[in-house]
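Mods, move this if it's the wrong board.
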Amino acid sequence: MTSRRETVLKIIVQEYISTGVPVASETISRNYQLGVSPATIRNDMAYLEERGYIARPHISAGAIPLNKAYRHYVESIVEDIELSSTEQRFIGSLFQDMEMEFERWAKLAASLLSHLIRTIGIVTLPKAPKCRFKHLELVKLQEFLILLVLVLQQTKLKRQFLPVSESMSQEELTRFANRLNIVYGGLTISEILIKELELSPFERQINEVIVNLMTAEDELEYDEPYFEGLRLMFSQPEFVTSNQLLSIMELMEEKEWLSVMLSKGLAEGEVKIVIGEESQQEPLRNLSLIFTRYGIPREIGGAIGVIGPTRMNYSRAISSVRYLSEVLSGLVAEVYR
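Not the wrong board. Structure tokens:
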């Protein structure tokens, strides 16, 4: 591909991202000083069409970029694209004014992404490879029903109602919970399992629930994500059929789709970009996803990204995701270190 055809392809992608309207050769000739005639531009567009970069709804229509064009465009974007310093300062000030709570940070980051890119922002809470026991509370609700509240060191609460076969006072429940808080504090599930404690049948029941809750947490690669901006994305002209909207909504309600999407993992600092048919999930075949990780490598972290139409402002999306991942990484490090 010649440098001029590279330029023509880049113009088509950028114009279509901006307007959503097929790009005609006359538009390129009129608005860009390429030093060639409209006929030469049409020949370049014919070349790009033959090789699967663009398509035209009919022979006299303008060009629409295909997934191959978006992939080519993304790989040509300069690596050091950044948000403006004004936007960076504004975003930083928003986080500085917030309390140190992971849930608030995640929701704010997802909301900022959705408004910066006008599409869906996604952020998962930070998660360690192995969760650790922090605190247990047992609350008597009825004579044979208690509430078990397990706090993990990642500031996560696990609650479970538990029917019991014997009635116990709140004082007895508190004494048992305090005993485990002393013995299990800061331990992983594998470290808890090798502890040799003499337990009553009731205490073994409580211990089994703790083990099951922590095991289930460890099996999750990513926490359930916070979504913001569904309305913004669905207002785009690409989403005109209810069937497409329904299939996307159904996918978002599934708990495992994000882990599947990121199943190959992300290298430190890598931004993963999945365009259209590159996705393994059928409802995402007409969308693009841009993700990266944040947090402390090999200690604790989460995922942050955006989902939107393939006609996405990739430059702005990549720079926004990258910058907000840096912000969240700094906040996580501040809490843990």
